[in-house]
Amino acid sequence: MNSGIEWLKWVKRIQAIAQTGLAYSKDVYDLERYEELRALSIEILENYTSVSADEIKLHFGSETGYATPKVDIRGVVFQDDKILLVREKADNAWALPGGWADIGYSPSEVVVKEIEEESGYITTPKRLLAVLDKKFHNHPPEQYHVYKVFIQCEIAAGEPKGGVETLEVGFFNREEIPTLSLERNTPAQIQTMFQFLDNPQKTTIID
């Protein structure tokens, strides 16, 4: 994260301290201070972004308990030396199929579900390729602290088709990657995935 948005890192930390304090503190005065910290983080976000206070409260206010990063899981599928991407309805750009980890599902179950829902393919998980901290990569700023998990899968069945959140499905070689949804994947991450295709013995990347 560059210095121009260093404040966002501080806001996330303030919010996390407030959320954890509200979950575990028993002292009424401490609880009041933690509520003030949470309100302060919301006020800062409202003033430095285009997001409304109500929307910020919806995200921050719904989080309870010890504050932990969110987990985004992406499926990496190769076919004929090309990588599977889906075009997102949200921004009309392309990404590896995937999404937030769901309660009650293992990482393997999440990636299989997401790939099928977004691309039409039924897959089998084969290998964990990378666990990345989003703050170290060239993504647009956002209010969450996110870990990104990349799992290589193989196609077992199915036909390509868009889903509720996707418009189009395609395989692309490394020289012809279309415009990417940068909230979801960066060009550098896609090229890193191709390194695993080139070298099946490449070790898992962990930030």
Automatic annotation (TrEMBL):
- Chain ranges of the Nudix hydrolase domain: 68-196
| Gene3D superfamilies the UniProt entry points to | 6.10.250.1120, Nucleoside Triphosphate Pyrophosphohydrolase
Which InterPro entries does the annotation name?
NUDIX_hydrolase-like_dom_sf, NUDIX_hydrolase_dom, UDP-X_N
According to its UniProt record, which protein family does this protein belong to? Belongs to the Nudix hydrolase family.
- The name of this protein is ADP-ribose pyrophosphatase
